[in-house]
Design brief:
heterodimer, A: 266 residues, alpha/beta, TIM Barrel, 8-stranded parallel barrel, 12 helices, 8 strands, globular, B: alpha/beta, 2 domains, 6-stranded mixed β-sheet, 17 helices
Chain lengths: 266, 414
Amino acid sequence: MANATGAGGAGHETIGAAIRAARERGEPALVAFMTAGFPERARFTADLARVASAADVVEIGVPFTDPMADGMTIQRASHAALVQGVSLRWILEELTAMQPRPTAPLLLMSYLNPLLAYGLDQLPAAARVAGVAGFIVPDLPFEECAELKAALEAEGVGLVQMVTPVTPAERLAMLCREAQGFIYAVTMTGTTGKAVTVPDEVIDYLRQVKALAPIPVCAGFGIRGREQVERLRGCVDGVIVGSALVEVLERGEDPVAFLRGLRLVG
Amino acid sequence: MAKVFELSAAAALMKRELAGEFPDARGRFGPYGGRYVPETLVPALERLEAGVKRWLKDPEFLAELEAQLSQWVGRPTPLSPAPTLSSRWGAQVWLKREDLAHTGAHKINNAIGQALLAKRLGAKRIVAETGAGQHGVATAAACARLGLPCTVYMGAVDCERQAPNVGRMKLLGATVVPVTGGDQTLRAAIDEALRDWVSDPNGTYYLIGSAIGPHPYPYVVRELQAVIGRETRAQMIRQAGGLPDAVFACVGGGSNSLGMFHRFVADSNVKLIGIEAGGRGPALGDNSATLTLGRPGVLQGSYTMLLQDENGQIQETHSVSAGLDYPGVAPEHSLLMSAGRIQYDSATDDEALASLAECCEAEGILAAIETAHAFCGARKWAATHPGTKLVICLSGRGDKDMPTLQRTLLKGKL
């Protein structure tokens, strides 16, 4: 599959294509999240290569001192990465130099301030060169995103929009229209990483998002096991696994085996 | 370094500020402010904004607030002459006595106002953060008064250095949660309060303690604290025969200072001076002098001046006073600094402690260490402006600082 630098249109279109390819295999796409440089900075690209080999899309977390939407696991991972000197500049340099490049499309998940400090004039081109197809910015609601979105779009890089169970219907429709790459449907109110049992009303909400969305819908926050993936398979195009994978890496276990365990099709 | 506007741009922004156009429809004070929060909180903030528009202009709501302020908080607070400091400093020194407000600081003005608002909005429970503990105590008291359950997040470092306030919050019925993540001070407490609120944005009301955070909080807190400046201005005219030449307040997040300064912003002959925490010195990590030393960025919901490194990571701060120990500041302060209307200076830990001792011994008032920073700024200014009329916002009392004072001013003296 072509990555962001490849031919065939905007980099962010590769994200939707990768998710649809998984759907065609008959299972939800697996979107894997890992914090860059955690547990060990020196192992970043090696860990990324392994995770990317077993996932359809990879989200790379840019550590930040104040991750207000994240639970304990990602807070701990962010802190440990910062202590080792991980920065957005370093991450982009590592990705640019990485050989071979992962075939799975890559997204960066970052709070806004590290992006502002890098400079919105330079970030989009640097991201494209590094093979980044899109960004997820958890503290940037739609009303504040115009400047970043336009800057990224000029380089073919997408901005993923989040929606939540408390998003009112009218706003949900508007956010679905404006989204790029995929729609990140948060499964619950709360921070990342708490295990959830996906109640019926969440399934109803995800079906509602799916009906409105012109692009794939992926569900995230609190997805830890195969049972949840089974439950979600009928109503979304992909599932996002974050804290649970970060914990696997933290314990030194094999991320490939863990991700394969979440697959529903061979 | 700080962004300072061209004179013409500054004048245009000041014109809009004076016309009451800020915050604008996008929650901006000029370029600062806004609403940078997870999508989960957007509907809650929109409801809050609609509630603020309705209730802060509603005569019945305002009458209820006024009744609580006069009958429970103890407003208006006095304006006291400071005869000994006046003769020592060679200036006419006046003190606005927020230390005499119920619970011992200006924080109660905001806490009771927002708690009333939360009730109107149908909140089931209140969460708050606290640094020095004064906002936590004020919120716990307001919630007890109005019958609302209350949880207060407080950095573990602050729990230790402001121990008397932890006990007060518990007696007032609040659940106090020590925060061991992050820097274990005010910033980490705000992060944790936000995480709690994200988990229940419909039933929980986040009662923020300073003029910071996402829109409309910087506006709500400033409006509720503006009573300080309104009273002070009228009291100066009545008791001192006219407006002051200069007004001083300490600046952490910026609630007592904006509350004091706001009514004076249009009085172009009145100098407004905010004093930040200079800590141990000007190096990154040694102080909390955000406006003096920071750069703009986004933290905890708004675009404002921040102490941050070249990668946009927020810096750990230091101040002997827990209430000033914060790497951000009210977006309206960022505007008023950039537009040149307010001047900002800093006082070091040692200077603040010396000013605290001087106020005790000269005027019989134990001020909070936060407040003592403002005294230091006023003393320095008086030295070069003899005979002028000064007001200091005595934002809170220092009883809560006894653990810190035992380790510093009182060391070896007991």
